[in-house]
Amino acid sequence: MNSLQVQPVARKITGIRWLPPRAGNAYTDTDLYFVSGSSAKHKELVLWTTANPDFQPTDDDKDNDDAESSSPLATLVAKVKHDGDVHDIAAPASDIVATASSFGMISIYNIGHTDNGDSSLSLREAVTAHKFANGEPAVATSLSVQPTNSADAEIASCGEDGRISYAPILRLDALQRHEVDSTVITGVCWPMPTQLAIATRAGQVKLFDRRAPAEVQAVFVDPSNTYEFECIAAHPSQSFRLATGTDTGAVLLWDIRNPKKPAMEAFNVHESNVWSVGFHPSDAAKIVSCSEDASLAVTQWVSDSDRQSRGVRHLSGFFNTLSVNCFDVCPFTRTSIIIAGSDSGNLLMEKTAASDFAIY
Amino acid sequence: MARLGTDKFVVEREKEVATRLSPGVFPTGRQSEWSAQNRTLTHSVHPLTNSVALCVAGKQPREQLKTEIRVYEQDQRIYVCGFGTTPDERLSFINDTHAVFSAIQSIMDARETHVGVDALLRMSALYREAMLRQVRVLQDARDSEFVRSESDVFQAMHAVWHLLEIVYVTTNSGLSASVVPYYMEWLNFNFPAPAAADGERIIGSSPDSNALAQNPDVWPYVQKLALRGHVTTVANMLERIAPAQVLSAAASRWARELAQTARDMPLASSDETSGSFNARWRRWNSGLQSMATNIGSMLDKADDDALSALAMVVDVMRGDADSISRVGDTWQDVLGAVLLYSEPTAQTERLPALAQLVLEQFESDDFTLVDRTLAALVRHELPEFLVYCNQIDAWLSAHVSDLMQHIGILDSCRRVFKVEPREHYLVFLGERYLTHEGLWRVAMDYFGLCRTRVSQNIMGEYIVRMPLESDRKAQQVLRVCERYKLTEAMERVHRQLGRQKWQRGRLGAAIAHFVRVNDSSAVGQICDQLWAEYLASGNLTYGPIIDSVLATSAHDRVRFLTVYRDFHECYKGGEFKRAGKLLLSILVGEIAPSHAVPDLLVDSIPLLEGDALVFGADDTLELMRCAESVAQSLVDSDVCGVGRDELSIFNVACARNLARSYVMQ
C-alpha cells in the first residue's frame, strides 16, 4: 500500500477539480490551480495553488525529499461561501467552475486573476435544477460538462429527484429538466458530445441521446448481482467504454459496443462504496477510484505484454481514516498528480514521475 | 456522576456552563414582574448535539386567562444555546488522534494474547506528536483568551500523557530499565527550567568572571541547573566563575574541583551491568561526600558566601534531601533531583514511595489541577488520576482509560468506579464530538470501538437520529450500522429513508427501502397508491418505477403491478393468449389486492368477447369463481369503482365464452 501525502484543512472535502491551465497551453504553467468544495459545517469553495512538478528539480536527494514533505502541499488562494454542501465540481475553463449543491442548485463561479497575483472566486449565476414533487429541494449529486469546444457547451446534472437537467453554461436560466429514473441518479458523464450516460442507485446504466433527452436509448444492468451504482465515468477516447463504481466496493468496466449484450468486467478493489471513478487522463489503461474505505485505488485493466501486468495499487494515509470522497488526476502535466479530499478533513496528494510515454 | 466511595476522593465536578441570552427575554431585574404576567420559560434539548432551544411560554393557556395579556416581540423568539461544543480549531487534532485510536484498536485485536509494547509505544508517541503539533498551531494562531487556555490544556495533556507513557509503557517493557533518565527527560521537556533566557541574561550582563561571581542571580541559577541534572552546564558555569579575583582561594579551588567532578558524573549505559554502574556511582558519590565535608569544615572556620553557595550545589549533587527541598520550587523538581542523585537506578516500583516522601513536603492545597493529576499518577492512584484527567479534558480521560485498558491496569479503577471507566469516558468524548456537524463519523467510531453492550445501545440510539440530508450521507450511515452490526438501527434507518422518499414522491426508491426491511404493509400501500393513480389517470406510467426495484423485491403487490403491466403490453401487442394467461395468473395467484379484482375482471371482457378463443372452459370457470366472490363483497359494501352493470356484462361474456369453449373443444 502506497502512502499519500496529507495536508489537514479541517474541512470535509466533497468535491475537487483541477483547473485547465491559464496559458491555455499545457506544459508552460509553473503554478497549477485546483478548486475544492466542502460540506457540513463549512460549506465553502476554495481555490488552491501548487507548484507544477514538471518544473521542479528532480533531485532524488533524501534532504530534498524531507524539505518537500514539510512544506504544505498546496496554498490557499481564495475562498467563497457555497450555498449548500458541494457535491461535485466541473471546470470547463480556467476561469469558470460549475458546482452541484445539496440544495439542488447548479452554480457558476468566476475566477478572476489580477496583475499583482491575487485571485478571486465569485458567484456568477445559480439556478435550482433539482427538486422533489413536494417542492423540497433535491440534492444535485453530480454534474458534467459537454465535451465540445463550442461556446454553447451544456452542463448536464443529475439529482436525487431522478431527473437530468441540461443548461448551457452561458445561460443557466435556459434549463431543461427530464425525469428519467425513479431512484437516485448518482452519476452522469458524456461519452460523446451527443450522448449522455447515467448511473443509478438501482444498479442501472442508462444511455440518452441529447437530441431526444426524455427517451432512454439503452439500459444496462448486471443481472448476476444486485449492485447499486455510486458513480460513472467515460473513457477519454473510446466512447463505448464506461466505468462505474458500486456500493460493494467494485469497479465495473463496461464495453457497450453491442448494446444488446454489453461486456462487463468487475474489479473488486475496495471494501466499501466507491464514491468516484475515472480513467487516468494520460494513461487510460488505468482506472482511478476512491472509496468510503479511506483509500484510493489505481487499477491497471489492460494487460500490457511488455511493461505492466494487470493489478491494483492502493493509496492511503495513516492519518486519513475516513472516506475519500473525491479525487482528480491532473491531465495537463507529465508527472501524474492525483489530488483527493476526505471526510477526515484532509487534502491528499500523490505525485508519480511519468513513466515513459506509452505511445512508444 | 457521583460514584466514588472512598472518603478522600473528590466527586467529579462538571464545569458549570452559563450562557447569557442577548437580547434577554425580560429587562434586567424585572423577573418577578415578568413572571407574574403568566410567563415562564420552556425548553427542549436537541437529540444529538449539546444545544437547547428555549422560548417564552405561558403558565396557563391564553384562552383561560381573564385579563388580556400583551404580547411582546421577545416573547416570540426562539433561542438556541449550545454548550460544551467542539471548537473548529481542534478538528485536525481530533482527526489525527482518531486515526491513532483506530490503529491501536486494530493492533490490539490482531494480537489478543500478547500486548506489543513496541507498537503501543509507537502509537503513544503519535498521540504526543499530535498534541505538540496542536500546541505549535496554537502558538502560530492569533493570541486570544481561547487560544491561551487551549494551549494550556494541550501542554498539560502532553505532560500527563508523557509521564503515563514513561511509567506504564516505556519502563514496563520487562527490561528492568531505570526510570530516572526517562523521568528527567520528561521533566526537562515539559517543565523546562531554568530558562535558557535566564542563563543568557546572566552571562550577557556579566562580561567577565568577576562580574559573574558578584551577580546575585548566578548561584541560584547554578543550583537550579544542578537540581535539574544539567551537569555539563553546571561545570561550564563554574569554570567561568572560578578565575574571579573576588572569590576566596578556597572557593575558587572547590569550584574548579566541582566542575571536574560534575563532568565525571557516571551515566548508565545499556551495555553495563547494574553492579558495575553502582560501583562507579558509589565512587563518584563518595567523592562528593568528602568534598562536602571539606567545604563544611572550611565554612565552620570562616564565612564565605560564594563557598556556602557552592556547598549547596555539592549538597544537591550528593543527594542531600534537605538541600534538594530547599532549592526545588515544585515537587516535580524535587522528585527529579532525589531520583537523579540518590536513587539513580530506581525502577518504576520505587516511584510511589519516593513521591510520597517528596509530596509530604508540599502544601497540597496550592497544587494546580495538573500537579494533582501528575501526583496521582506517580503515586499509582489510578482512579483519582482518571478523574483528574477528565477535569483537564474529555479527550485525555478517554484515551488514557483506553491505554490503561490495553496495558491491563484498568482493573484497579473498576473496583472504585460504579460504571465501566473506559466505556464511560469514550462515550462521553463521542457525545462531545457529536456536537460538531463534521465529526459524526468520528464519534460513531468512538462508540463502536468501545465494544460494550451499553456503548452499542447508545450508538444505536444516536445513529437513527442522524439527519439524512443526502443519499450519500444515508449510505454512510448504513455502512456504519453494517460495520458495527447494528441490525435494528439499520432497519430503522431504512424505514426512515423509505418514509422520506415516499413523502417526496419517489415511490420506487421508497419501495426499495421498505422491501429491505420486509415492511409489506408500507410496500402494499405504495403499490395501492400507484394503482389508484393508474385508475384515476388511465395511463400506465408506473413501469419504470417498478422496473428499478424488481430485482430487490419479491413482494406480492409489486409482482401484481409488474404482471399487470406485462398484460397490458401483451394486449397492446396483440398477443391475446399470453395476455389472458397473465391476467388469469394474477387472479389465481391472488397477488392482487381485493379492491383491484373487479377492475381486472372488467379488463378480461374484451378477451372474452374477442374473435379468438382466449380462455378455455376451465379458465372461464376460474374467472366466474372470482366474479362470485367479488359479487359477494359488493353486496357487503358498494365502494368499488366498478358498478353492477359492468359485472353483469362480464357475466354474460363469461357465459358466452364458456359455451363457445365447449363447442370448440
Structure description:
- The complex is a heterodimer of chains A (360) and B (665).
- Chain A is mainly β.
- Helix content of chain A is 2%, strand content 51%.
- Chain A has one helix and 29 strands.
- Chain A has one helix at residues 62-70, and strands spanning 2-3, 5-8, 12-18, 31-39, 44-51, 75-81, 86-93, 96-101, 105-113, 119-128, 140-145, 154-159, 163-168, 176-179, 185-192, 195-200, 204-209, 216-221, 229-234, 241-246, 250-255, 263-268, 274-279, 286-291, 296-300, 311-316, 324-329, 336-342, 346-352.
- A five-stranded mixed β-sheet of chain A has the order 1-26-25-24-23, with no helix packed on it. Chain A has a four-stranded antiparallel β-sheet with strand order 2-29-28-27, with no helix packed on it. Chain A has a four-stranded antiparallel β-sheet with strand order 3-4-5-6, with no helix packed on it.
- In chain A, a hairpin with a 7-residue loop joins strand 13 (163-168) and strand 14.
- Chain A starts with a strand and ends in an 8-residue tail after the last strand.
- In chain A, 51% of the residues are buried.
- Chain B is mainly α and 665 residues long.
- Chain B contains 32 helices and three strands.
- Chain B has helices at residues 31-36, 91-110, 117-140, 145-169, 180-190, 196-205, 209-214, 218-227, 231-241, 249-263, 274-301, 305-317, 321-327, 331-342, 351-360, 369-378, 382-392, 394-406, 411-414, 421-434, 440-450, 453-463, 471-483, 487-503, 507-516, 520-537, 543-550, 556-572, 576-589, 597-609, 617-636, 644-664; strands spanning 39-45, 51-58, 78-82.
- Chain B has a three-stranded antiparallel β-sheet with strand order 1-2-3.
- In chain B, helix 11 packs antiparallel against helix 12 (305-317).
- The longest helix of chain B has 28 residues, at 274-301.
